[in-house]
Amino acid sequence: xxxxxxxxxxxxxxxxxxxxxxxxxxxxxxxxxxxxxxxxxxxxxxxxxxxxxxxxxxxxxxxxxxxxxxxxxxxxxxxxxxxxxxxxxxxxxxxxxxxxxxxxxxxxxxxxxxxxxxxxxxxxxxxxxxxxxxxxxxxxxxxxxxxxxxxxxxxxxxxxxxxxxxxxxxxxxxxxxxxxxxxx
Length: 184
Prior knowledge:
Blueprint: H1 4-14, H2 18-38, H3 42-51, H4 68-76, H5 81-89, H6 101-121, H7 133-141, H8 151-155, H9 164-176, H10 179-182
């Protein structure tokens, strides 16, 4: 099953924090773009992005559970095993290995969405439209900027055959495409 509606309903029912919801939407958009670029199933990959932090508020403080509980929920909704596995594997603390391209993509997209969001929020207009690949690259190199973003996870895009600039451009374009939903 790759129907978005039940996953979105779970997000709306279980995720109270609007910024977290927006992060999940941004990650979904990046995952869909990655799947399209790599010739994969954009619907399935998008659902991995949308559902990956479904349990973040419930598991806060117990990182070993984060990802596992979301994966169990998604399995219960009938999502494909590759989606369920990717969600469990996106948090290395679960002990679930990231082995498939969808797993690696989710790890990278999760962090890239945070970096791009932060790059937009430091702009005077707080608007994604003015963010360029050059500024994302600059912010990526500034370790003090968006300290919570794991640059090593973003660099895993290279495991998918994508250079950083291509990945930044793909992610930025995907997020700009849903800027209204992201409030950016």
